[in-house]
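Quick one: co-fold with zinc ion.
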Amino acid sequence: MKCGYCGYEFPEEEGIKGCGKCGMPGRCHMVRCPRCFYENPPELKVFKKLKKVLEKKL
Ligand SMILES: [Zn+2]
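Sure, here it is.
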């Protein structure tokens, strides 16, 4: 994935996940850039997964 702030490209596994400090309920899905620590929104496939989970709850 590509960092939306500095443009640094890195594999999602290398990003810093689950900060636990942003106050979001449950697990944080943001992926932090290993270079500038900007919080990037997760990639589209994660969004799809999240949508599925939300649909189940409705
Ligand atoms: Zn960055």
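If it helps, The radius of gyration is 12 Å.
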